[in-house]
Structure formats: structure tokens, C-alpha cells
Design a protein that fits this description.
heterotrimer; A: about 100 residues; alpha+beta; 4 strands; C: about 150 residues; 2 domains; 4 helices
Chain lengths: ~100, ~100, ~150
């Protein structure tokens, strides 16, 4: 009985893993010139619910800017999603836009 | 009797399914000064999820690409994005709706 | 015997009324779900005229309604039936929720038209998008509010 329960729990654990959920999205103005695509993604691994800051998100704009020096990044699609594991999860913020010079 | 009860419950569940919705967020922005109001374009992309098993968010990017195709050679501004879920029996549908103003000059 | 039954009934009634009182006091809250801000243009050649657009839809928590009904029911059979209905409803309306569920998802689709009605030129800046809810027992107001400024030449 105990073994069966353990087996069931393990199965449940596996089935609950890696499920993705979308938390938020937003899009800014999309330019006429869409040839140079710039992308950025930041991730944070959170064990249980221990997360004490969200500063990792700031790196997204830095990364986009570095890929478009001297230009303007517009048409930015920002996605905030979460990948759930058994007792932890990944917070993912990704952005995709166009570099206009 | 038991079988009847189960069949009845299932019937009610199916009948009541997919009648509620939840709008998670609506984002408006990206207006460009002096561009005018242009033509309004709109695209909705969906993702069906059964029992919570979902492994990607590709539909968001797919929708974004299709939305842009509606205004090839033009600028899209005043973009309003809506992310919502329609609930159903043991499944649900995630929806992303893009709406904007297409200006071709 | 008759007197003690009556006393028990009124005692139970008083408990229920106080429960409802506490519940009502805790309700009718404004709950913020999301807030986002767009680009800010502070061009002095333009006059800024503030506008706001608000759309809302009634939300309904069937789960909360059934839980409340269960609390008011003394019969075990009725409570079991309500629990079964709750389970059926939970299974037939599965999915992530922000606030209470509504019976349509298109109530915010007229936002862009409403913004253009307030500012036909489309020269809009500093747009704040707010998704909030006004919560009452069982029902709620699911709200989308957009505020911004329309730029008009001086």
C-alpha cells in the first residue's frame, strides 16, 4: 500500500513538471522597418517560493539596448511566463523587438 | 441509480462547460505622435490546454507574427493587447488578442 | 424541550448573522491585478488633456456562492449535494482565473475605439493600463481602466 502511494506520488510529481503558464504580455508600437530583430531573455530559478527580489528583470532592457547601439528598439513583445516543476519553478521574462536606425 | 447519477453529473458538467471567461490583463500603449489613426487591425490567437498539460507559449509569437502580416510595409501603433482564458470541461483556451492602428505611408 | 429548541435555533441564527456581518465587512475591496505604463512624451509644444476610459463586467463566483449556501444548510444530504455541484462546476470551468469569472471576454474589446473617441488624433501619451476588481460577496466588478493624456497643439 505504502509502495503504491509512493508510486502514485512520483507519477503525480512527473506529470506536474514543466507545465508552462503565461503571466503577462504586452506589445509596443511596431515599426515599418522590421529587418533587424533583437531578442533578450532572463530566467530565475525559484525553489519552493523563496524569491526575495525581481531585479533580474532589469537585464532585459540592458540586453536589448546592447544589441541596438545608437538605434531605437520598438515593436517589443514582452512575455512573462512560468515553468513549473514539482517543488520549484522558473520565472522567465523574454522580449523581442526591432532595431531601427 | 448510481449510473444515472454519474450520467446526470457528466451531462450538467458538459452543459455548463465553456461558459465562463477570465480576462487577465489588457495593455494599451505605443501611440506615435503625429501618425494619425490609420486603419484598425485585429488578430486573436488561441491555445487549447487539456488538464493543464502545456509545454510552450508559442501561440503568443505566432499571433504577434500574424498581426504584423496584416500591416506589411506599414507602422502599427496604438497597440491594445488582451490576454484571457475561456474555461471548459477538463480543458481551457488561452487567448491573446492584438489590436492596433495600421498606418501606411 | 420546546423552549430549548427555540433557543438553539436563535443561537444558531445569531452565529450565522455575525458570520455574514464579518464576511461583509471584509468584502467590497478594490483589488489590483495588473498595472502597466507606456511611453511618456513631455513635448512642451503640446497641451496635455487627461482622459480615462473604463469598462467593466460582472464577475460571479459560483464556488463562493455554493460554499456560503453550504454554511447555511444544516442537512447533511443537502451539504453533500452542494459539494457534488461544486465539484461538477469546478470540473466544467477549469482554467486560470484573474478575479472572478465573467460570462463574456469581449467587454474590453472596445478600448481602442474608446481611446480614439477621447483623442481622435491618436496623439496619446502616458497610457496607464489597470486591471482591477471590485469585490463583493459572491459577485464582483471586473474592471479594465485606461488613463492617459491626449496631446493637442498649443
Amino acid at each position: 500500500m505504502k509502495m503504491l502511494r509512493g508510486f502514485m506520488l512520483t507519477c503525480l510529481g512527473f506529470t506536474l513538471t514543466q507545465c508552462v503558464s503565461l503571466r503577462s504580455i504586452s506589445v509596443t508600437q511596431i515599426p515599418k522597418e522590421r529587418s533587424k530583430i533583437v531578442t533578450a531573455e532572463v530566467k530565475k530559478f525559484v525553489f519552493l517560493a523563496f524569491n526575495f527580489d525581481n531585479d533580474y528583470v532589469d537585464a532585459v532592457t540592458e540586453e536589448l539596448r546592447s544589441q541596438c547601439q545608437g538605434g531605437t528598439v520598438t515593436g517589443i513583445l514582452t512575455k512573462h511566463s512560468r515553468t513549473e516543476y514539482f517543488i520549484a519553478h522558473h520565472e522567465i521574462v523574454s522580449a523581442q523587438g526591432y532595431c531601427v536606425r | 441509480m448510481m449510473l444515472q447519477k454519474i450520467a446526470g453529473s457528466l451531462f450538467i458538467a458538459v452543459m455548463l462547460g465553456a461558459c465562463t471567461h477570465s480576462v487577465h490583463l489588457v495593455h494599451a500603449g505605443g501611440f506615435i505622435k503625429g501618425l494619425g489613426s490609420g486603419t484598425r487591425i485585429e488578430h486573436t490567437e488561441e491555445q487549447k490546454v487539456y488538464m493543464g498539460f502545456v509545454f510552450d507559449n508559442e501561440y503568443v509569437d505566432r499571433g504577434y507574427q500574424s498581426f504584423q502580416k496584416m500591416c506589411e510595409g506599414g507602422t502599427i501603433h496604438g497597440v491594445v493587447t488582451r490576454f484571457s482564458t475561456s474555461h471548459g470541461f477538463l480543458h481551457w483556451i488561452n487567448k491573446v488578442r492584438y489590436e492596433g492602428l495600421c498606418v501606411k505611408s | 424541550m420546546h423552549f430549548s429548541l427555540k433557543r438553539a435555533f436563535f443561537k444558531q441564527l445569531a452565529v450565522k448573522i455575525s458570520q455574514v456581518g464579518v464576511f461583509s465587512l471584509l468584502s467590497s475591496c478594490a483589488i489590483l491585478h495588473h498595472a502597466q505604463v507606456s511611453d511618456i512624451d513631455d513635448d512642451k509644444k503640446f497641451k496635455r488633456i487627461a482622459f480615462d476610459v473604463k469598462v467593466n463586467e460582472s464577475g460571479f463566483s459560483l464556488d463562493e456562492a455554493l460554499r456560503l449556501s453550504k454554511g447555511f444548510t444544516s442537512s447533511k444530504q443537502a451539504r453533500d449535494d452542494l459539494e457534488q455541484v461544486r465539484l461538477i462546476l469546478a470540473l466544467s470551468n477549469m482554467g486560470p482565473q484573474t478575479g472572478n469569472p465573467t460570462f463574456n471576454d469581449t467587454y474590453a474589446d472596445q478600448i481602442l475605439s474608446a481611446i480614439l473617441k477621447e483623442c481622435p488624433s491618436g496623439n496619446v501619451t502616458e497610457v496607464k493600463s489597470i486591471r482591477e476588481m471590485r469585490k463583493y460577496p459572491v459577485i464582483s466588478g471586473e474592471i479594465v481602466k485606461i488613463t492617459g493624456y491626449c496631446l493637442v497643439p498649443n
